[in-house]
Amino acid sequence: MMDNLKSIFTENDFKLTKETSKAIEFENIHTGDVIYLLPNKEISIVLNPNTVEENKGLQHNSHGIYNSTALSLFPKRVNTGLTPITYGYSYKFKTENELNQFLTAVNLIIFHK
To answer: What DSSP line would sit under the chain, residue for residue?
Structure first.
């Protein structure tokens, strides 16, 4: 399944830039914007909070804020601990097609203004 998901990112102008056990980092080849794919049972991605907050419509579809050190290129905030941790907005999809449609929409709305 992960290979299929990686190919969906490639088809949507993202290149794989880093892969760890916690997240796979993809960078848009035109803008440099980053999206993280999480290796969960369900299809989960995390967008940069600055991108989401600049485009309020994206907040409605989000499953909330996700905190993880794996989101190394995102901004930090203090969550439950004393030190700031990187965070972003998470999105979950039931099918690969839903992910593909979302990435296509994100590219149209945000990255190619």
So the answer is: -HHHHHHHHHHTTEEEEEE-SS-EEEEETTT--EEEEE-SSSEEEEE-HHHHHHSTHHHHH---EEE-TT-TTS-EE--SSSS-EEEEEEEEESSHHHHHHHHHHHIIIIIT-
